[in-house]
């Protein structure tokens, strides 16, 4: 409501409109103890933005009509998150709090709290009283960042923010609340069994500790999370993984519900396998034993110092943050840290204090903790006989079994569990090569764009030595392209299974490297496996060498037990994606638009029948024919880059792809007219609907691309204002440009609730907006049009704040094989030439019935007005998903919907429909 007009700027969307037209963005984040408002905008328009921003706090309007409408936005946001496991778990934990403790509050809000139990007059009065009581200058903090002098920034701050009223009232007194009275006795004496709405198998053991926010000098809670969450040899994670009891262990507490001024909820969260669920006693024994190990060894100074040095080095050489991220973090830090520690308080370990650490160890060795088991497969016949009030989470509670209590009482260190050894991957050489010889000429003698160092049938190596950021960092990206992933659903699924298995195989050995600032990422892409490594350049080649050697010997490191665990994990991942409306919407859209695309449903079905022999055969064949695209950029010399590439080639011993047409990506042409792909959601009793209206424009040209970019920017704000703010169709309303292998278009997406607005209504309102937008464009003053265009041009000129931004832009040019490394500069030339009339004519033609190629993709949620969702077994019968095994054995059949409305082409079989479409040739932009 704060955003919706002020006395000086009473138009409801004035602030948002100004920020958007000037090429910026804004948002607000509500947490349990603070609300943060922020925006980012080009420096040229900072003055006007601060004027509008400050007036929202000086004299906000919060009009009655706006308040009544915005209730629906709160409800929509709540419904969008109602299936989120983290949100559900947090609210369930809160429901176990003492009734008078703040932790037991409902922290979301919905129509039930904002409409059903309060009149409009009461809500209006309560909201205005709340604003006057709490939005007082003496309790507010402000941070601003710009390339201006401090005097100029101070002058702007004083000019615009000194008029915010102050009531000088103290904040609400919470001094009687603490960790000792936060939760009911049952929180500690019962085991809670939870039925999640996603396919999850997880054990949480949670201690309620004293608040730790003020312990930032030592950070004993973070230090303990570091020890417990370690994944290398001898760790709790390693112990559980090696016994296939768990896939992952997460430890610690995040700010908000878990970490605040009243208490700290320290959790050890174990992502269990089926075997782990059946043997929870073994997992609990390991956790309890590790706690005893910590008590036995006590604080270890050298471990603390090593972590202290790692974080200090990370801070010293950290990348520059985006302006909005930086001020958002700093303004919250101002509330918690002394002025001299605002920048470093959340990141550095200042000093070692054994007694502070020992206190946390002692607290973690007290038998006052909560046990929560969340699994879609009921634990040993448990019946869920309770339901949480707000999210409807089903759960049960039982007394802690005597044998589990005995595990704690008799816990002792296990020989296999031990604290980590000294980290061999910590860098010691931070020399900057670009400035080593002649700092003055470094930036001029190094090419501005990547240069190709090597190309043959198997690889192409691109390289650029950094001379701008001057950090001891390098990024190395590798794309191992193979014909196999595009060959069949089976091969595509095996590619994902291979990458998941590979990550599991190397996780333990390379975990110390990730702690030391050497990061790696491995994932399956459209044409193969992507490997990305980044960090301190000194030892980065070692990581690449170890990973590529593991690729070569992959099949020799496989085991049947691990294969089954990873396969089950991937099946759960697929399942959880399938039941998300937004994921299904994307899947079915791309299945139509791309010539080759394997949906998650297809992969899910194929995965069931894959064997360890299939994966072994696949891993041996994969590198027989590959094309390795590589980009190395940063604080690395040319010869070192060549050495890395040659080492990779030696490790993999790959052959070249004989038929390159097998790795070509192509898009299909959407037929003329209004095409509808409408399917039911796979999640039962979920009202969330996702509608994407996609308008295909055609093969990319510089002119078409510039027109679409400007058009989308012009659409953004009025679309949000009309369909989200005024009509409250859904919490998430957006538009974006679409590029499918060089075939362009744009789309409008709305996340709505089917029991509030039908999918037909959503589509109609988007089309009504399309008509209205023509009028808005015609009436737009030329000065406003030029302002938006200038803002788009300024976006193209934004300076990279970190090496990764530049790297990712160059990497996209390489993987698309367009190699236009100065793309932004070339695009600006075409944007400069655009006129308002040209955009109007282009938009009208795009939506003219003679030329229109529209595909409306709708994944429809459940409501009383619609049929049940299409979760079916092989027999076609609806099931409720009683447990995890039923979920993972389920056959998902797409349920198409159609109406008898004239002028609509309903797609009722994606596979058959796709085969009738024209396929564009391989399309690249030509400047």
Automatic annotation (TrEMBL):
Residue span(s) of domain Peptidase M16 N-terminal: 1-81
Keyword field: Hydrolase, Metal-binding, Metalloprotease, Protease, Zinc
Domain Peptidase M16 middle/third: 315-603
GO MF annotation list: metal ion binding; metallopeptidase activity
BP GO annotations: proteolysis
Stretches that traverse the bilayer: none
Superkingdom classification of source: Eukaryota
Matching Pfam families: Peptidase_M16, Peptidase_M16_C, Peptidase_M16_M
Domain Peptidase M16 C-terminal: 124-309, 609-792
Family according to the record: Belongs to the peptidase M16 family.
The name this protein goes by in its record: Nardilysin
